[in-house]
Write the C-alpha cells for this entry.
Amino acid sequence: FLHLRGHKTLRKHCTEKYHNITTWTSKLCLFFPISTQTCHTELHAGQYYTLPPAHMRTLFPHGLPPRFQMQMKTFNEACVMVRQPALELITCLRKADYSEPALRYVLYGEKGCGKTLSLCHVLHFCSTQGWLVLHIPDAHLWVKNCRELLPSSSRPGRFDQPIQALNWLKNFKTTNEHFLSKIKTTQRYVWTKRESTEEGRPLGELVDQGVSRVKSSSDVVGALLRELRLQAGGAAEGAFRLAVAVDGVNALWGKTTLKKEDKSEVLPEELTLIHNLRKMLRNDWCGGAILTTLSQTGSLFKPRSAYLPMELLGEEGFDNMDPFVPIPVSNYSDKEFESCYLYYLDRNWLQHPHSRTEDGKKELIFLSSRNPSILERLCAFL
Amino acid sequence: LTCSSGRTVTACIYSLAFPLQLLSRQICVSSAAWRKNLAAAGPEKFSEEYIKKQVEEFNIGKRHLANIMGEDPETFTQEDIDRSIAYLFPSGLFEKRARPVMKHPDLLFPKQTAVQWGEDGRPFHYMFYTGKQAYYSLMHDTFGKVLALEKYQDSMRNKGLFTKDTRQMSLTGSRWLLKEELEELLVENISDHDYTRFLQLMERLLSMPYCAMEEEFVQRFRRQLEVQSSKQEIPAVQHDENGVAFSQAEGRRKTAKASIKLRDCGTGSITINGKSYLLYFPVLQDREQLMFPLHFVDMLGRFNVEASVEGGGHCAQAGALRLAVSRALLSFVSAGEMESMRQAGLLTPDPRVKERKKPGQAGARKKFTWKKR
C-alpha cells in the first residue's frame, strides 16, 4: 500500500518521459519492459497493467466481457488488474509438467467477481509464451438461442449448429494465424462426396474448408479439436502447448433450451459442438492445460445464488470434470479496491466531486460491497 | 343484565346512546351555510336542571357499574368505566365512535350558553347585538390591555425609567390555540378571518416592551408543545460472550417486518436472511435505503448487521430494515444526533399502506369508464 502512494510522484515523471510508449505499462508503479510481464508475482498484486492493442485484436476477437469492451473503448486502452487468482493460475502453469496429462483448472466465484477477466489475463500470458490458444468465449451461447439446428451430416441423432461453428472458426483463425500453416493433419477427412481434406495438409486448409462450406462447419470444428488434441506437446520440432479455455463450462452439462421439431428437448450430448468439446475436456491428452470458468450469468435453469462447482456443474458435470484444481475468485480486497478506485480517479472517470472524498469512498464500498462489476456499474454514472 | 336496581341502570343506559348524535356540532364547524348564532338561539335544548339531573344519574350509574363489576365504587376511574362497558356491551362495529360509551355529561353534551336575555327581552351582555359577543368582548379586553400598556410605557418614559430590556416572556415550547380550541373556549363560531385578527392582536400585545405584565392573560391562550424526542424508546445495549456490544430493534413498512441485531464489530458486513445484502437486494435503490441511517451518523464501516425480514416487496423490506437500523443505532448515538435523526425522518414509521378498493370503482381511486349517456 505504501509503495502505491509513494510511486504517484514517480509516475508523474515517468508519464512525461514515456508518454508515447504503447508497450505494457504498469499503472501506479514503475514501468516494466516486455520481458518481465511473464514475471508477474505477488508484488504486483493489485496493480493494473495495460495490454497492447495489437495483441488485443488478435487474441480476443470474441473473448472479453461486453462491459470491459465498452470500458476499453472509453479509456482507449485495455487495463487489467493483476489479482491473486490469476497469479495462482500463472504459477501453476509455469510449474506444471507437460508430459503428464493436462490439468484442469476451474475458476469459480460469485457473480461479477472477475472470473472471465482473470481467464483473459491468463490467456494473454499463455499466448506470450507461444501457446496455441483455443478459446470458447461462452459455452452458453452454444446451448441456447440457436436459429438453425441442422441434423448432422455425419452422424444420425446429432445436431449441427452451423452459424455458431462458423463464427468460432473465424475467430480461431484470427487468434492463431501463425500456427495454422505449421500444423498438419494426420488423417483424411471426407466432408461430402466431392470434398475431402487429405492427410498432411496444413490446418489452415481445414479451417478454410469450414468457413467456406457452412454446412459442414461443425464437423470441421470436431476434426480440428481432434487434430490439436493428438498433436499438442507431441513431436519435438513442431511442439506447441495447447491452452483450452472454456468460459461457462457448466453449460456443457446443463440443460439446453433448444427443441427438436417434435418439441422434445435437445440434450447437450446431441449437439456436435458440445460433444466434441466434452471430448476435449477429458484429460487424456498431454502437453497443455484446460482452463475453465463457471458462470451463472448465462446459465439455464440455475438459481442466481448458485456459484459453487457442485451447484453449477451438477453431478454429471462434476464427475466428468473431477479431478480439477478449483480456484476461487472473490470480491476486491481492501488493497485491490483502493487500486481500482485510484485507477478510476486517474482516468477522470469519477466526475462527481463527492466521490473524491473519503466519505464518498466509504459509500462506494458499502453500495458495491467491493464487487468489481457492481462497482464498475456504479462508477459509470458518477 | 342482572342487577338489583334495574330501573336506574336502564335510565343510565338510555343516556349512553342518546347524546352521540350531538357530538358532531363541536367538530365540523365553519360551513358557510350553517351560521347558527348560538347566543341568539332560543331556550336551549337541554336546560341546566336537565344537565344536572344527567350528572346525578351518571354518578349513580357509575357506582352501580362498579358494584356490577365487583370493584370499589370510590376509586372507579373513567378508564375502568370504559373497560367495563366494553366488556358488558361487546360491539363488533369498526367505527370506534359508534360503540356504546359512558362518559360524564359535560363531555357528551355540547357546551351551551344560557339564555342571553332576561324576561323583558333585554340582553345581558352589552355586545349582544354584534352577534359574536364572546369574541368581540375578548378582542375589546385585549385591546384595552394594549392601551393600558402604552399608557404605562408613557408614564415610565415621563419618569425616565423606560428601558427596553425588561423581562421577556418565554414563548418557546408553546403554541397559540387552534381555531377549534378557541371556539371551544368561547362557545361560539368564529370565522378564519376573525381567528387571524385575534392572533394579530395577540402578537401586537407581545411585541410591546412591558408585555410581561400580561403574562397570565396571554398564557391562557397558549398550549404547551410536547418534546417529541423524549417519546423515543431507545433499545438497550447488550453484550454477548465476546464482549461485543450489540442492540436489537424491529421495524415495519407496509406489510414487511424486519428485526435486526446490530453488532459493534468493525467490519461493515450485512447479512439478510442468511444471504449477503448484495445478493438479497440487487437493486441499487434498496441498498441506498439500507445505507442511509449508517451514512447519516457516519458509522458506515463500524457495524455488523444480522437481519431477518419477511413480508412485503423489496422496497417495503428495504424500508423496514432502514427503520430497524435507525432504531438500533439510537443506543449508540448521542441525544443531539438522535434529534437530528428524528428530524431527518429516519425514526418515523411510514404510515402509508395500500388503500382499500371501494365498491363502484375499479380500484382505490380509479373509477370505471365514464359514459356520458
About this structure: Chain A touches chain B through 14 residues (CB under 8 Å). The mean pLDDT of chain A is 79.
